[in-house]
Each structure stands twice: as structure tokens, then as C-alpha cells.
């Protein structure tokens, strides 16, 4: 009788980060909406809202920080659930 020798291995897949929420910045003047993750630098239609970046001055794990500024009225910032938290 011939026996078989087998090898088994377990592959551990790294989970890809999928955010549960997306952050929306809405201009309270013109109603223009921007998804904060998808933009690098931007402004709204009326010019009230300005989204820019600020590079860190010291060694940091982040490449840049996003800044949000306004001229007249404050923007409305809120999160929207994009996937179910618990299936």
C-alpha cells in the first residue's frame, strides 16, 4: 500500500480597508456638496467654501492634512453610512 504525504497551508488574506461612512462637506450658501475623501483641493461654486491641504512640518505618518475654510457662512459637515455595519 502506498501512502500519500500532503501539505496544507493557510493563506491569510489581508483585509482591504473599506470605510463605513463617507464625509460630506456642504456649502450653506450655494448648497454645493463635496465628498472629502475624493477631493484634494477644491472650492464651492460660490467661493464661500475652500478645501485645501496642509503638509506636516515634522515627521509624521500622514502625507497631508485637509483643511476646510469659509468666507461668510460655516459649511455643513456630516457623515453618510455607505455599507451595513453588521451583515
Task: Name some characteristics of this structure.
6 strands, mainly beta, three-stranded antiparallel β-sheet, single chain, 87 residues
Quick synopsis:
The protein is built from no helices and 6 strands. By secondary structure, it is mainly beta.
Could you explain how this protein is built, in words?
The chain is 0% helix and 33% strand. It contains no helices and six strands. The protein has a three-stranded antiparallel beta sheet, with no helix packed on it. The N and C termini lie far apart (49 Å). 6% of the residues are buried. The model has no long low-confidence stretch (mean pLDDT 82).
Side-by-side strand order of the widest sheet: 2-1-6
Kindly report the average pLDDT value. 82
Q: How many strands appear in the DSSP assignment?
A: 6
Alpha carbon gyration radius: 23 Å
Structural domains: how many: 1
Helix coverage percent: under 10%
Q: Could you list the spans in which at least 5 consecutive residues all have pLDDT below 50?
A: none
Structural class, by secondary structure, is: mainly beta
Question: Helical stretch count?
Answer: 0
Reading the helices and strands in chain order gives EEEEEE
Measured between the Cα atoms of the first and last residue, the distance is 49 Å
* % residues in beta strands: 25-35%
Oligomer: single chain
Biggest sheet architecture: 3 strands, antiparallel
* Shape label: elongated
